[in-house]
Amino acid sequence: MKSLEHKRVGIGRTLCGMILFAALFLLCRTFPIVGDDWFREALGASLHNPIDLLREVASRWATVNGRILGNILSYSAGSRPLPREGMRALFILALAWLLSDVARLEGWPGLLWCGALVLSLPQGMFAQIYPWAAGFFNYVPPVVMLLACLELVRPVLDGSPLEEHPGRCAALFLLGFGQQLFVENNTLYALCASAVLLVWYRLERHKWSPGLLAFFLGCALGAALLFASPSYRLVGAEGGAYQSGLGGGLAGLLSTAQTNLPEVAKYYILDCPVLYWSLTLLPLLLWWNGGKRAWKDGLLAAVLVLGCLDLAYIRVKPMAAAVVWGAALTAALWRWSPNRACRAWTLFLWLSAPVVAGPLLFVSPIGSRCLFLSYVLMLAAAAVMFRALEPGRWLGPLAAVALLGLFAGCFSVFLPLHRVELQRTQAIQNAISSGAHEVAVPAYHDGGWLWDADNALKMEAYFYRNEPGDLTIRFTP
To answer: Over the Cα atoms of the chain, what is R_g?
Structure first.
């Protein structure tokens, strides 16, 4: 009977995943090409086989950055709309699927809830992650791979022995190695996380785990390959597009951290209402269900509520309030988690987020996209708490309504922008065919939902006829 029920749940989840993939694919089709995606469109059109792609990626590794897999995905997606949108939809679906696995939100209701969570990003982060292909292919795939690794090592956090076999070891090594070849702060976090899990298991079980050792070695080798890129010498010497503050010694690092702190805090928590509301309400519900009524629990609850209200409405010294609120949340997770597994998972995910964000204090420039992994890890902590509350049958219908509302909002924003993109492309093609040297196209009125939307220089580099500069693009209101 249990096997039949499990099979029915699996079929329902698979069908729901197929529908969600179709909706995500249609949404991705409405995302216009923006910013330096125009460069990747031109580059993708010049790549005719895997050898061309690998040669270009190797050249970039030697001169620009070490993001080998990020470059492979973004370059191969250029000038190939259907594969590009298919990959984007597939990675978003995988992100929602693995988030529901990590949180143990089972069946189609859990998948829908997690689909809603991964779409409910702050506006600035959404603009730099989903519509911007370069941001997407560098920031979403490594998060998917990390969640897959956490699911593979689930017994470590659950408090049970890890089943060791060659397939698990190989998967952990390859996923650990691959996720290191995207963005630098994610790479540093994965290296730290794999080491912590390895030592954690050794201390708890009094033996080394081959699977966790394979995970750590994969992360270490991937990080070594990433940072072996000669481009990072320029970062350290402040001579490239990115600067680390290392050239100025300790004073330079502190100065960079002081400059970056407001931006990091903004997209870490201050402008993330989905996070701070859920990370306040869910522990309070766990406390209420647990029946603990000691005075210290009441004090923790009061600090959480006041901190959340300050983040949402009052905004009196918000960064200081966020630190106090975060400390109270850490204590609350320790005290109010209903069991060992919930405590381990929530604290691991919650405390991982600042480890991801920390390196961003010391490099510039940064953007909201850099906090994406931190955001997802905190979403995962909230999802684990939500599962611990044992939601009832109402979860599925409510999740469907929430996700439909999010899709409706996304399509209402991006369908008009897609129509403008078609008008722009048609106007440029008409100008090229008529031999014109200048063309006026409508500007995007995106309301902050696009990153680097109107960039004439990058568009001209793609649309020129014979030589760079022979077509000028200007934007009309």
So the answer is: 23
Do residues 56 and 169 touch, judged by C-beta distance below 8 A?
no
Instruction: State pLDDT tens for residues 36-47.
Output: 999 999 899 889
Q: How would you class 69 by CB atoms within 10 Å of its CB: exposed for 0-12, middle for 13-18, buried for 19 or more?
A: buried
Nearest of 230, 136, 218 to residue 180 by alpha carbon: 218
Q: Residue 239 above 60 pLDDT? A: no
Contacts within 8 Å (CB) and 24+ apart, 346-352: 346/381, 346/384, 346/385, 348/157, 349/377, 349/378, 349/380, 349/381, 349/384, 350/279, 350/377, 350/378, 350/381, 352/189, 352/193, 352/377
Taking the chain, what is the end-to-end CA distance rounded to the nearest angstrom? 64
d(CA 35, CA 446): 14
What is the spatial distance between Cα 68 and Cα 462, in angstroms, rounded to a whole number? 23
| Environment class of 405 (CB within 10 Å of its CB; exposed 0-12, middle 13-18, buried 19+) | exposed
> Counting every residue, how long is the chain?
477
Taking a C-beta distance cutoff of 8 angstroms, is the pair 13, 19 a contact? Answer: no
Query: How remote is the C-alpha of 401 from its chain's centroid?
Result: 24
Residue 194 · residue 155 · CB < 8 Å: no
Q: What is the pLDDT of residues 302-341, one digit of tens each?
A: 999 999 999 999 888 899 999 999 999 999 999 999 999 9
Residue 129: phi and psi, rounded to 5, are: -105, -55
**Could you tell me how far CA 20 lies from the centroid of its own chain?**
18
Q: Which token pair is 9?
A: 């749940």
